[in-house]
Design brief:
The chain has 18 helices and two strands. The chain has 489 residues and is mainly α. A two-stranded antiparallel ribbon has the order 1-2. The protein is globular and about 65 Å long. It starts with 12 loop residues before the first helix and ends with a strand.
Length: 489
């Protein structure tokens, strides 16, 4: 296949890897959001309160925060083929556990554990970056992310109908089991169908594991600061579950979790120093340097793009059902329009970024995202349903194109750290989801959309001030000590 042209109708070479990987990601999202279009049935089956429903939505995205960091480290160390296969295999059984839960407590626990499947996205980012050249990596990552993200729309479109086909009060359980069966089968297919790199290529691994490498004193402290929101989001979740809110945790248990989170942050800070303490003693060679501020800005951009998508996908079916008094199937189908745009929007964001510049593209898309959420904040029961759906799809185009623009840049920061950079950015997406869904639990949907728009304005300013356009080449040291220059423009 030509280096300069991406033939999506091919099923050989790097395009084959792309198709196999986006479908693996598709199945992770199909499982991860299998509850959203069925939440009304689940609510009725367990007689859940509104706060319990909102708690399930928050729990679904919480574990993905540390999971994406961990998976990012594992994929850099062991390769995407093995890690993706194991993730799909393990997550299928968590899916079965959720389907057959017999109490709210078990339902909540399994939904929390199901958040682990959301880390699958990170794995493919490294896989695609290994197989595609820099001039194609934006659009390839966009196709991987966009077509994979469509798994949530596919769940919204298909699972309510599948549940009705099974019939009875347990139809939703069988629909969810089906998603786990598909992932279980595909975990074996993926393992025997892909390789981590093209034949003859080197798979670059981090020099040390346990924390991301940084290359200056300033970057060291910025890395410590950027880790705080990862733990703070989990602390917010603990607060929501605690005695002053849902009461699922007693005061003693809640305080213990706060202490554990503080301890984990201190442990992580120590590990970061163990990996990077040399920056205080000696200057890092030019060939190994990169700017961590690039990672920090991409984290924040993904928090407001993907974080808002996760939050909106979680609440949108119920929002349409309650706002326009629709059936469960109709609400799920209309709400799927938001995620449906992933098919074209995320690849478009990557393609535009490849063609017209990373920084400029991201700024334009954040402006569109802000406008989209401001308009969604005006939707109420007086609106025509079709107009509400059109505005939702308009907004989602900019949200998902923005995601594509972020991950068009992620592989261009530092090749051997791609999994960890992707993992941290991905984790920030879930920080955004937890934050926005926590806001949603206190306010109306209209205010919820306005809060996201305000966050986008702040992020736009940060991108404009601090994000640098990638230039030239990045250097990586081969295992034999020789240097390889990798094109990034």
């Amino acid at each position: 296949m030509s280096e300069s042209k991406l033939n999506l109708f091919s099923f050989s070479g790097r395009t084959r890897i792309l198709h196999l990987s986006w479908f693996a990601f598709f199945l992770t999202f199909f499982m991860w959001f299998n509850h959203a279009p069925l939440i009304a049935s689940i609510r009725d089956a367990f007689d859940l309160t509104d706060q319990q429903v909102k708690m399930l939505l928050i729990l679904n995205v919480a574990l993905t925060i540390p999971a994406r960091i961990i998976i990012g480290m594992l994929v850099d160390a062991f390769g995407p083929r093995r890690v993706y296969s194991i993730l799909l295999f393990t997550s299928s059984f968590l899916c079965f556990g959720f389907a057959f839960a017999d109490s709210f407590e078990r339902l909540a626990l399994m939904r929390f554990l199901m958040g682990f499947v959301g880390a699958g996205f990170v794995i493919g980012i490294r896989m695609i970056s290994e197989w595609f050249p820099a001039r194609q990596v934006g659009v390839a990552e966009g196709i991987y992310g966009g077509w994979g993200n469509f798994g949530s729309a596919a769940a919204a479109l298909s699972l309510p109908t599948i549940a009705l086909m099974f019939g009875g009060e347990n139809g939703w359980r069988y629909a969810i089991v089906l998603t786990g069966v598909l992932a279980l089968v595909y975990s074996v297919v993926y393992f025997f169908s892909v390789s981590d790199t093209p034949k003859g290529s080197t798979y670059f691994k981090p020099k040390k594991n346990g924390a991301m490498e940084v290359t200056s004193k300033g970057d060291f402290f910025l890395y410590l600061v950027m880790n705080i929101p990862l733990y703070a989001a989990l602390a917010v979740l603990n607060w929501k579950l605690g005695p002053s809110n849902l009461g699922m945790l007693g005061e003693g248990s809640s305080n213990l979790i706060y202490a554990v989170l503080a301890g984990l942050y201190i442990f992580q800070a120590i590990r970061i120093y163990q990996i990077n303490g040399h920056v205080f003693r000696e200057e890092v060679p030019e060939i190994d340097r990169y700017k961590f501020k690039q990672v920090a800005v991409l984290d924040l951009a993904y928090m407001v793009t993907f974080g808002s998508e996760l939050a909106v996908v979680s609440m949108l079916p119920l929002f349409f059902k309650d706002t326009f008094d629709l059936s469960l199937v109709a609400a799920g189908m209309l709400a799927s329009g938001y995620a449906f745009m992933n098919l074209v929007a995320r690849p478009s964001g990557g393609l535009i970024s490849d063609r017209f510049g990373r920084r400029k593209t991201m700024m334009i898309l954040l402006v569109g995202l802000t406008a989209g959420y401001l308009l969604m904040g005006l939707i109420d029961s007086d609106w025509p349903v079709l107009l509400a759906v059109a505005i939702t799809m308009f907004c989602s185009f900019f949200v998902q194109s923005g995601e594509g623009a972020v991950f068009a840049m992620v592989p261009l920061v530092k090749r051997r750290l791609t999994g960890q950079v992707a993992g941290m950015a991905g984790a920030y997406g879930n920080v955004g989801a937890v934050s926005f869904l926590t806001v949603y639990s206190f306010v109306s949907p209209q205010v919820f959309f306005m809060v996201i728009a305000g966050s986008a304005v702040v992020t736009l300013a940060i991108v404009a001030l601090f994000l640098d356009e990638p230039e030239g080449h990045m250097a990586e040291v081969l295992p034999d000590g020789t240097v390889q220059m990798i094109e990034v423009t």
